[in-house]
Design goal:
The complex is a heterodimer.
Chain A lengths: L4 H18 L7 H14 L4 E4 L2 E4 L2 H15 L4 H19 L12 H7 L3 H22 L3 H10 L3 H21 L5
Antiparallel strand pairs in A: 1-2
Helix pairs in contact in A: 2-3, 7-8
Chain B lengths: L1 H20 L4 H8 L5 H22 L15 H17 L3 H9 L3 H27 L10 E2 L9 E2 L5 H18 L16
Parallel strand pairs in B: 1-2
Helix pairs in contact in B: 1-5, 2-4, 3-7, 5-6
Classes of the chains: A mainly alpha, B mainly alpha.
Chain lengths: ~180, ~200
Amino acid sequence: MPMNWKAGGLLLGLVFFLAVLLVKPIGVSTQFVILDGILGDAVNAELVTQTDAGYTSTNAYLAKSNGKYAKSVANPLNYSFVFVLAMALGGFVSMRLRGGLNGLEASVPALWRANFGEGPALRYAATFLGGFIVLYGARLAGGCTSGHMMSGMMQTALSGYIFAAGAFAAAIPVSLLLFKKEA
Amino acid sequence: MTSIILALVIGAAFGAVLDRVGASNPNYIGKMLNLTNLNLAKTIMLAIGTGSVLMFGGQMLGLVDVGHMSVKAAYIGVFIGGLMLGVGWALAGYCPGTGVVAAASGRKDALFFIAGGLFGAAAYMLTYPSWKASGMLDSVAGGKVTLGAVPGAKFDGLTALPGDVLGLLLGAVFIILAFALPERIIGTGPVTQPAE
């Protein structure tokens, strides 16, 4: 069982506040691009290059905004990238402290099982496809659930409201269509 | 160095809280999006409201640096990208941050989500020039704007309303909505199977 929404909401809100108080609002999806850049640069050293003015890339997206992303690819030990690694650590420790996951749930979640059966292959294919669409969409939008929806709406950013409208307008009908049986 | 320590502390706290509120559990995401259990939606609304009130309240009292605000641009692609993210979010039950936390907490399907995400982000990197040329990344309504004009912020206001007061009010609205939202909208609950 998850935490009561009142305690959980306060705690989550406190983390959002601490982030903006101490550093900057939380965001995650950019770091998928940075990891892609790191992997790409390992294969092709020409991808990110240092210039007199800073960093640039043969990829137009990494080179945009004066090579802001190219710089992060070249120096991955920065706040935003370490933040995402630390999120993984926090999630791991929290789950260990509450006893971990049982076997089947770790590969095919209960709600999916109730609607599409226990086979992991279909579930893995669905999450791979989901991940592809989510990150393509998040990069097109310039942010994701954390950056736009939570940090954005918290700051009364217009873009956060536009994003949330789009995300829920698609997510609710798709979910209603896919998950008709309750777990 | 300080920034790395802050990244570790705030990042770990965020990951742990996402795990505890159930946001990295695809069952709860699915139940929120098919409107059968809105507890997670209540959590998120309360979090946005709490964050907003503390941030704008702190700014008004001079305790929070307005310069830490970071507002993203508004453009047509934000809505299209939002629609896409919504489809994938419903299908997988993960978004970028919660997918990472879920994978770390032992969910194997989330590893496939991350792999798909890396390919999706790479696909966007390759197609970025055509989006740029399409004009759908061009700012609308002033681009990086907040709903009101926040005193001292480097972002313009969509309206001339005092942005800090508006932020406090909207924060309060989110908190009220969190309490007002019912626990479920559709159905009455899973049918209990009689013992055989």
